[in-house]
Write a structure and sequence with these properties.
The protein is mostly helical and 175 residues long. 70% of the residues lie in helices and 5% in strands. The protein contains seven helices and two strands; from the N terminus they run H-H-H-H-H-H-E-E-H. The chain is globular and about 65 Å long. The relative contact order is 0.12.
Amino acid sequence: MKKLFIVAVVYCLLSCVPCIQASYVLPYPSYMPGNKLYKVSRIVDALNNWWYRGNIAQVKYHLNLSDKYLVEAKTLFEYKQYLLGADAMKRSTKEYCQIAFHIKEAKSEGKNMEKIINTVLAGGEEHLQVITNIKNDLPQEYRWIPEKGNATDIAFDVLFDESKSCIDSLKTAIQ
């Protein structure tokens, strides 16, 4: 009886404590290049664009894809897969830049976008933090030389500046 009373008291105390939540959390890395299912996941991502109709759904879709590709880029950069990481970073930036159009359209339709805008802005801050951390760990430029074929120069500073300017322009466009 005493144990039951203690469990009940602990349960009441824990249920009264407000939950602590992070403001914005990036997803766990999905399939990475080289995995057999990576191409399938990219096709599913493209098909989901058709599935998610409406401006609010499109904002969520593009933000989720941008997050997914940013995490992919971060992981690839950590493993020194610079060419693949740069491609994922470009895709992340492209997806994030498409959000502003859908927010403007939803606002023009008279939809309340306050909560979604706050989520997008929090996501932008998280993206900026990740981009800054990645940028500090990478050289400004890198020349990738394959065994067969032509060398490719990757300008990381330009790549990250494009992402930052996209995030900054979205902030100014939606406020």
